[in-house]
Write a structure and sequence with these properties.
This protein is α/β, with parallel strands linked by helices. The protein is built from twelve helices and eight strands. The model has no long low-confidence stretch (mean pLDDT about 95).
Length: about 375
């Protein structure tokens, strides 16, 4: 192929963006990951000098070892991090689905923190001839702490390029019909297998989303409202009445007020009130991770059973459910309209090469 980069076939790429994960369930790897994650001003809005002292003097020395034990409890044999495994699988299967649909679209995964880094992925796509880039965050509900931070990193990398690609961003898809349908089917599949909760008896269905400090909402972050809408649409699609399902927020950290109601206290309250069976699902996490597998599937289960609950059922995240891969493709297609999705015809490449040769002769 001609070495002139302008003569390569131009390609369209879709990059899935996710948060990231430690490379191993060890204190050293977890510390490196937490340091990068918690040093992001989008995540922690505290003056840098004050936060540096807190982070490096208190949080990292204490939390790295404890968090490493939690990661070890959910690490997949031979596969490693669940978040990495399922996120890579989603990118792989989305690319295969595009191919089966007759499209020639590059699909890859980039992590905001850790590997594969955003820079590494974008550089590799550039080398393959990427001229058009669609960013598809694996955060259905928009937040400055996740979506905006991932976009920031893409902008930072592209800011160093002389020849930048066309760029499109998907801000959110919290109410996208294909996404809601994939969530519904994931829950119904679990209920087909294990039986539907007896809501007349007092069984409940809980949807737990990752929490944020309340001040984020007060400053205008739409995340809280988008989570509530996802919860309402999923509840309606399952044919549930208000009161049969609840939306809660998990992963609270520190002493400040976070989005309410909190997941753990809600589960404890339900158990004490006589709820016998509780089904819990995490719609905001497209892939299982430490927050779902350790915090919800393990810790929350103990809370429910210790306070009188009898039957606790964790419903896995979407992961590689074919309906979810189809939903990702539908969401991507909505934003790819007008861009070529197939390889350039040979005639177009030949014409481009001919024009380049004519330009060379004109300069000699």
């Amino acid at each position: 192929m001609n070495q002139n980069p302008h003569l390569r076939p131009s390609k369209t790429a879709v990059v899935l963006l996710n948060l990231g994960t430690p490379s191993a369930p060890t204190p050293k790897a977890v510390r490196a990951y937490l340091k990068e994650f918690l040093s992001d001003p989008r995540v922690v809005e505290i003056p840098k000098v004050i936060w540096w002292c807190i982070l490096n003097g208190i949080i990292l020395p204490i939390r790295s070892g404890a968090s490493a034990k939690k990661y070890a409890s959910i690490w997949l044999p031979k596969l490693g991090s669940p978040l990495m495994h399922y996120s890579r699988l989603q990118a792989k299967e989305l690319g295969e689905l595009f191919t089966n649909q007759g499209h020639s679209v590059l699909v890859d995964l980039a992590m905001r923190y850790g590997e594969p880094s955003t820079k590494k992925v974008l550089d590799e796509l550039k080398a393959q001839g990427m001229e058009r880039l669609l960013l598809l965050p694996l955060y259905p509900q928009y937040s400055a702490t996740t979506t905006a931070s991932s976009f920031d990193e893409v902008f930072r990398v592209l800011g160093t390029w002389r020849d930048q690609p066309e760029l499109r961003l998907i801000k959110h898809y919290h109410d996208n019909p294909a996404y809601i349908a994939a969530l519904r089917d994931q829950v119904l599949e679990a209920w087909d297998k294990d039986g539907r909760p007896d809501f007349a008896r007092g069984d409940r269905f809980v949807m737990s989303f990752h929490g944020l400090p309340k001040r984020n909402l007060m400053k205008g972050d739409p995340y809280h409202c988008e989570c509530l809408k996802t919860g309402r649409l999923l509840g309606e699609s399952l044919g549930l009445e208000r009161g049969q399902y609840l939306v809660t927020f998990q992963s609270r950290f520190g002493k400040q007020e976070w989005l309410k109601p909190y997941t753990a206290p809600t589960i404890e309250k339900l158990a004490k009130e006589g709820c016998q069976r509780l089904d819990i699902f995490c719609p905001g996490f497209p892939a299982d991770c430490i927050e779902t597998l350790e915090e919800i599937a393990m810790e929350a289960r103990e809370i429910f059973l210790e306070h009188g609950g009898k039957d606790y059922r964790y419903i896995p995240c979407l992961n590689s459910n074919p309906k979810w891969i189809e939903a990702l493709a539908n969401i991507a297609h909505d934003h790819l309209q007008g861009w070529p999705l197939s390889s350039e015809p040979e005639a177009v490449l030949n014409e481009r090469n001919e024009r380049a040769e004519l330009a060379k002769k004109a300069l000699t």
